[in-house]
């Protein structure tokens, strides 16, 4: 066509015709516009965030990946409507908008990460490491594929994630929970009370009168659903998981010790911390001269003031060894047997002289010997994953041939478990929880959604394993007749009557105690024994359940109250209440502060990101969002 146009324009007639044609085209564009030609370029934009955007394709990919992960975890399909009702679509959009906003902030600040730095950070991530603690390339590739990325794309995505984390770390750096809040929680946890109490047994109010048949029938009719027989199902289950396949006894002791050293600070207490002051000198000569002055009695903070250094750069406060940017500096600081000065340490920024002011020793609530069994089992479970996958494939191959679950299990050297009667709460026919039921509520929910003879999908275990199951029988729920439960109805009526009488008796005793009578005198009148509980705190203890402990603290000191217990009614008197003096330097106070930090950091980050998005400006294409998820929205 282009050649034809070129030939046609060789003479004046052709040129005239071409001019007329082009004129018509120009006029048509001037009338109808050219916007539609370019409008398609922004049709794929779901959200605008400053100069950046979230495309429909990016959102759809993130949404589908997250939906797939949830479906794998729940072992069932999740509709878009269910995801919308749970707020998944908006959560994904909010995350992507935040990422775009932080990416723009990173560019504004000129932040960047080299490929070498990114690779080093990825290699240090626990999630990409194998049981031996080293980077596992196959595990990395699997996680990248599960996330919908190529390896190159996943590395690029992680590089951006590290830059965002750098910004958020700066935003929350130095944020500490208010001392007043830490003190309030400390006092709440450590308030202790001395409780005098008596137990009122049902026999105290005597046996209730035997109800007539008419009264029993009326009670039954009013509470008919209480006496309904539940549906029970007979299940056959086969569990293959890291915890069942792993062999803890084969794990070397040195590997267990290594894991304990890595996790003890996070899981079992607080590591040693040191109160450190630090000055960086440009030359070794300056560092040596300063060290000599400090050893002679000079004050390091006064020295820093003379050098016009920022106090925050000098006073590091209480830090762990891992908090030091240069491991050599941290090693020197923690090598000191007590408070003192380190020799100059050479770093990329100069010679560092550190002074340890005080030491907060490590405190762990589990020794290595106490933690060894669980850590050994954990390592064994991680090592067992290849065997779990092999058994999964082998069992699936057996089931594909039409074998029953028991036959499939026998073929691979395993045994199934049979549960004769399971209700929808995971209890047996006596109403007690079935011990060792694999995957508990998840298995029960799946089994009650299935039927006899159905080839079911597996149910996931918490440690990444699988539970196969078959429904072998169903005993339907039914309403029991009055004659079947007549004795149970009579027992329930007598129990209700006794509880009402005991409650009235307890109220009477509480009134006497609040009027000034001693609990010992009242106990003698009633004929029960007075007991005392010392150092009662708002924490679990074997002699009282949680509801009773809550009641102890609902009542003011020198006042009485009552609570229901298994063997009757408990009436108590709060003899005294003690709250210890708050010590901000105590291990418990520091632990509370550490526990509060994540909440404060999250709140600060939420405000920071909200302010950043407000400054950049965020515009959401609501129609594109609806189209991307396929979920209908309320108008």
Task: Write structural notes for this entry.
- With 635 residues, the protein is an alpha+beta fold.
- Helix content is 52%, strand content 17%.
- The protein contains 26 helices and 20 strands.
- Strands 7, 8, 9, 10 and 11 form a five-stranded antiparallel β-sheet that branches. Strands 17-3-19-18 form a four-stranded antiparallel β-sheet.
- Strand 14 and strand 15 (466-475) form a beta hairpin.
- Helix 4 (56-74) runs parallel beside helix 26 (622-629), helix 6 crosses helix 25 (587-616) and helix 11 (213-222) packs across helix 22.
- Mean pLDDT is 84; it is low at 28-41.
- One of its GO terms (molecular function) is isomerase activity.
- This is Parvulin-like PPIase.
- It is found in: Cell inner membrane.
In short:
With 635 residues, the protein is α+β, with helices and mostly antiparallel strands. Strands 7, 8, 9, 10 and 11 form a five-stranded antiparallel beta sheet that branches. A four-stranded antiparallel beta sheet has the order 17-3-19-18. Keywords: Cell inner membrane, Cell membrane, Chaperone, Isomerase, Membrane, Rotamase, Transmembrane, Transmembrane helix.
The tally of helices reads 26
Helix content: 40-55%
Strand content: 15-25%
- The tally of beta strands, per DSSP, is 20
What structural class is derived from the secondary structure elements? Answer: alpha+beta
Overall geometry comes to globular
Mean pLDDT: 84
Largest sheet: 5 strands, antiparallel
Radius of gyration: 36 Å
Poorly predicted runs are 28-41
User: Separation of termini?
Assistant: 51 Å
């Amino acid at each position: 066509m282009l050649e034809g146009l070129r030939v046609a324009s060789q003479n004046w007639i052709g040129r005239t015709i071409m001019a007329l044609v082009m004129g018509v085209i120009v006029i048509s564009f001037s009338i109808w516009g050219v916007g539609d030609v370019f409008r398609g370029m922004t049709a794929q934009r779901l959200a605008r965030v400053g100069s950046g955007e979230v495309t429909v394709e990016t959102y759809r990919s993130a949404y589908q990946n997250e939906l797939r992960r949830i479906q794998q975890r729940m072992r069932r399909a999740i509709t878009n409507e269910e995801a919308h009702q749970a707020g998944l679509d908006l959560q994904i959009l909010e995350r992507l908008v935040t990422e775009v906003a932080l990416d723009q902030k990173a560019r504004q600040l000129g932040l960047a990460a080299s490929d070498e730095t990114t690779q080093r950070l990825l290699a240090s991530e626990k999630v990409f490491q194998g049981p031996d603690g080293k980077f596992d390339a196959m595990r990395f590739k699997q996680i990248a594929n599960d996330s919908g990325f190529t390896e190159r794309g996943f590395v690029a995505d992680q590089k951006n994630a590290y830059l965002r984390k750098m910004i958020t770390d700066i935003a929350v750096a130095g944020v500490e929970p208010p001392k007043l809040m830490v003190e309030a929680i400390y006092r709440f946890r450590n308030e202790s009370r001395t409780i005098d109490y008596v137990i009122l047994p049902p026999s105290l109010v005597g046996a209730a009168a035997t109800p007539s048949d008419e009264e029993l029938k009326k009670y039954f009719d009013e509470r008919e659903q209480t006496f309904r027989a539940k549906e029970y199902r007979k299940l056959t289950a086969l569990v293959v998981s890291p915890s069942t396949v792993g062999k803890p006894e084969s794990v070397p002791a040195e590997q267990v010790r290594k894991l304990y050293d890595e996790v003890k600070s996070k899981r079992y207490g607080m590591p040693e911390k040191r109160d450190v002051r630090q000055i960086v000198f440009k030359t070794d000569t300056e560092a040596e001269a300063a060290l000599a002055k400090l050893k002679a009695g000079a004050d390091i903070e006064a020295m820093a003031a003379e050098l016009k250094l920022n106090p925050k750069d000098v006073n590091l406060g209480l830090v762990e060894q891992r908090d030091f940017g240069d491991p050599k500096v941290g090693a020197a600081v923690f090598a000191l047997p007590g408070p003192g000065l380190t020799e100059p340490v050479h770093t990329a920024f100069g010679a560092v002289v550190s002074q340890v002011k005080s030491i907060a020793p490590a405190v762990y609530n589990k020794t290595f010997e106490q933690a060894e069994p669980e850590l050994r089992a954990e390592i064994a479970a991680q090592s067992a994953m290849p065997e779990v996958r092999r058994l999964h494939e082998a069992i699936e191959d057996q089931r594909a041939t039409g074998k029953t679950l028991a036959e499939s299990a026998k073929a691979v050297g395993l045994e199934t478990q049979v549960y004769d009667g399971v209700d929808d709460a995971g209890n047996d026919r006596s109403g007690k929880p079935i011990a060792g039921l694999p995957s508990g509520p998840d298995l029960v929910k799946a089994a009650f959604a299935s039927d006899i003879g159905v080839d079911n999908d597996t149910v996931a275990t918490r440690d990444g394993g699988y539970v196969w199951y078959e429904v072998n029988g169903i005993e339907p729920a039914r309403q029991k007749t009055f004659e079947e439960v007549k004795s149970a109805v009579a027992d329930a009526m007598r129990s209700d009557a006794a509880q009402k009488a005991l409650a009235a008796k307890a109220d009477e005793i509480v009134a006497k105690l609040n009027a000034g009578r001693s609990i010992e005198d009242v106990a003698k009148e009633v004929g029960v024994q007075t007991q005392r509980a010392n150092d009662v705190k708002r924490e679990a203890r074997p002699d009282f359940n949680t509801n009773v402990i809550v009641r102890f603290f609902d009542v003011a000191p020198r006042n009485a109250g009552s609570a229901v217990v298994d063997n009757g009614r408990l009436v108590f008197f709060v003899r005294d209440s003690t709250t210890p003096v708050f010590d901000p330097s105590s291990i418990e106070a520091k632990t509370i502060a550490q526990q509060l930090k994540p909440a404060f950091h999250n709140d600060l980050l939420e405000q920071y990101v909200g302010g950043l998005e407000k400054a950049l400006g965020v515009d959401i294409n609501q129609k594109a969002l609806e189209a991307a998820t396929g979920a209908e929205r309320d108008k």
